[in-house]
Amino acid sequence: MAKKTYILDTSVYLTDASALTSYQNNDIVVPFKVLEEVDNHKKRQDGVGANARNFIRKLDSLRDKGSLHTGVRIAKGKGVLYVSSPENSQLDMSVADNEIIATALDQKNKNPRRKVVVVSRDVNMRVKCDALGLITEDYVVGQVVKNTENLYSGYETHLVDDQIIDQFYAGEDIYLEKEDIKLYQNHFVLLVSSANGKKTALARFYDYSKPLRRINGEYKHGIWGVKPRNKEQNFCLNLLMDPDVKVVTLVGKAGSGKTLLAIASGLAQVVDNANSPYRRLIVSRPIQPLGKDIGHLPGTMEEKMTPWLAPIQDNLRYLMGNDKETLAMYISQGTIEIEALTYIRGRSISNAYIIIDEAQNLTAHELKTIITRVGENTKVVLTGDIDQIDNVYVDETSNGLAYAVEKFKSHDISGHVTLVKGERSKVATLAAKIL
In this prediction, what percent of the chain has a pLDDT beyond 70? Predict the structure, then answer.
């Protein structure tokens, strides 16, 4: 196979610092502009900042092997890396993307027999490259599934003989065969009669060697005043209230109830249950800067975090009947902690019920950093909507929440539910459908 030259733009390195080693024995050219842009992100206290610092350290280590200007081999069996700037260009060099594109065009002119490929997470960058005759592609190494339709849903429908439904309701042990349906541990199943489509039963699957467990609607009267309004919400409570399930992932549109159910379940086990292993409820979400970072905002740290943590406060107040004094009491006692995700790093958290909201804005690296903080007797709940991502360095198939769903699905300490129906209000549900 002919050797190629890859030019990865800044978005790739800020997504994955190890991207340099992802292109086999092909050469990689790093535009000088990329170094400047990466440097601007190195002080960020999130996964993007971590990737920026790791990438810089990687380049610094390569300097010991040779010159970045004349070229240095990345690793054994890998290609050669060069740092380069465009010599001449008709493009506007005040635009960062144009300087990276000009570097690619320069490489193409110097070696016309070799394919030059620009790799970028930025859609418009790829459009500009294509318009100028450059081969371009997305960075797909970090994608955990090909598309969102392939993401594990945690729920399957399965046709069975009519008498199986009757036997299941009669309390008989019902087993499923691996040859008939592929299921993971803590998978939910809707059994449907092959003779009558309206005759159904809800079940939870544990293992092919174990009988299905009936979902009886044990939480139909609600948890902290929150009642399940559909089968998916029923599945959620089944996992959220199960102490044996240590990692729960909930994916759903705005208004589907994922965050409210998670917080209600946490309160029920931390506040109401004296025998629960959880002594505190920690609710957090990533601070995803939209414009300036949090450090540029005026006020104390608590005041800076207020805009990001307000949705969590709203849910807690709703569950407590808008009783601000009771909520303040629980917070002052340390029973409830509302904290920006940045400050959970480095901690070892035991005996806690942790909820990470808006987890779709996490990178896989950030997710690993958080979950590896978990100590004994701690449960982690990740909630989010993979169709609403504010982090420009991840997408629907490479974000931390999708990563967790796919990587944990085959383990018995985890469970997942995809919520499909909005339950916030008729207005919210209609708006989500038609707008």
Answer: 91
